[in-house]
Amino acid sequence: MKEKQFNTRAVHAGERADFTNVNSVVTPIFPSVGYTFADSNELDAVLGGEQPGYVYSPRYANPTVAAFETAVANLESAAAALALPSGMAAIHLALLGAGVRAGSHVVVAADVYGATYSLVQGIFTELGATVHLVDVLDLDGIEAILAREKVAALLVETISNPLMKVADLPRLAELAHKHGALLLVDNTFCSPYLCNPIEFGADMVIHSATKFIGGHGDVMTGIIATSAELKAEMVRLNKLLGSSLGPFEAWLAHRGLKTLPLRMRQQCQNALEIATWLQGHPQISQVHYAFLPDHPQFDLMHRLSGGKGGGAVLSFEVLGAGRAEIFALMDALQLIQPATSLGDIYSLMLYPAISSHRSLTTEERHNLGIGDGLLRLSAGIEDFADIQADLAQALAVLD
Predict the structure, then answer these.
(1) Domain boundary at 240, 257, 274, which?
(2) What pLDDT was estimated at residue 226?
(3) Do 247 and 282 lie in a common domain?
(4) Based on the domain organization, do 219 and 300 belong to the same domain?
(5) What number of other Cβ atoms are within 10 A of residue 221's Cβ?
(6) With bands split at pLDDT 50, 70 and 90, how would you rate the model's confidence at 17?
(7) What is the DSSP string of 147-179?
């Protein structure tokens, strides 16, 4: 049978698995930690991986979690997926699964999410890995490091947070594989709706599923879509790390996933209209959004997304603003929520200097181009006119 379209797969993927004659339309929540078997031979076969089954949820697998993993793997064009309690847990385990260890080298886009930056620069460096921070647009510089060092992994974001640089995934995959490295892509800002990095050669696709996949700001989870072999290695590691997603969280995230295409279409439309309007505003010096025609990687974003959009997140520089002016603007917001997240049905505003990139020094932030007047906006599904009106009245307090 012909493969179903994305909208249909978002609704049905992972559902109606064989739950021993449980014929519910929606996947049930299985809270059980342990499972029983017909006899010890069956238990031995399941523990040994010789037949499918569930043994112990915290270390092996859970039916509700497995349904969510199946759905994300389907939408990301991956063979398998592994769900975890947060996006940072997913980043951490993906790096370990890719072989980042003491003595190894890892290449990381410099303007990744602040916590990712701190993870690689802090914990992985302290554990003995050598981290090379690069401009994701400098392909020659990236290849020079890949050619010079034995690199285990190259980690990038499809769209960077918060400056909206777009990674050339096909070329980065080619370079990584040419030199024996794995390409890891944080695809959170795009979601599976806009881009499937595995189709462009990525080895692992990582999501903070707390964001667009869950979509409603009510569940925290992360997920890695990858090959069966790489998932098996990460499952092996995770049996010791114990970073397991609970069934209630998996059920909520899977429920949110079903409306992903509907939400993303509206959010991408809102984000483009907001970005276009802000470009003409006298108090805005620069707008970063990958689907603006004058964005340096507009053509690349169009190609990666199949023309579906540039995502729901944009950032912009308020002319001459510092901390005091930004605080006044954010305090004046009435509809847009000043919250430290993104990807919700609500429009959310964040000040990177004190939140997503708080762990960086002022010098590190400024070197990356994250100034004191930069704000990040995640467009929700509200009416554009209402979002625009709220931004207009908040900017007016700076007059």
Answers:
(1) 257
(2) 98
(3) no
(4) no
(5) 28
(6) low
(7) HHS-EEEEEEESB-TTT--B--HHHHHHHHHHT
**Among 223, 257, 291, which residue terminates a domain?**
257
Residue 40 lies in a domain: yes
Confidence bin at 340 (pLDDT 50/70/90):
confident
Please indicate, yes or no, whether residues 214 and 292 belong to a single structural domain of this protein: no
Residue 294: domain span = 260-396
Tell me how many domains the chain contains: 2
Q: Are residues 58 and 150 in the same domain?
A: yes
Task: Categorize the per-residue pLDDT at 168 as very low, low, confident or very high, splitting at 50, 70 and 90.
Answer: very high
Q: Give CA–CA dist 349/333, Å, rounded.
A: 9
- Its pTM stands at 0.94
Tell me the sheet residues that pair with 146.
Answer: none
Please state at what angle helix 384-396 crosses helix 323-332, rounded to 10 degrees.
130
pLDDT cut 70: percent of the chain above it: 97
Average pLDDT estimate for 115-142: 96
Q: CA–CA separation, 108 vs 170, rounded Å?
A: 17
Angle at 122 between CA 121 and CA 128, to 5 degrees: 85
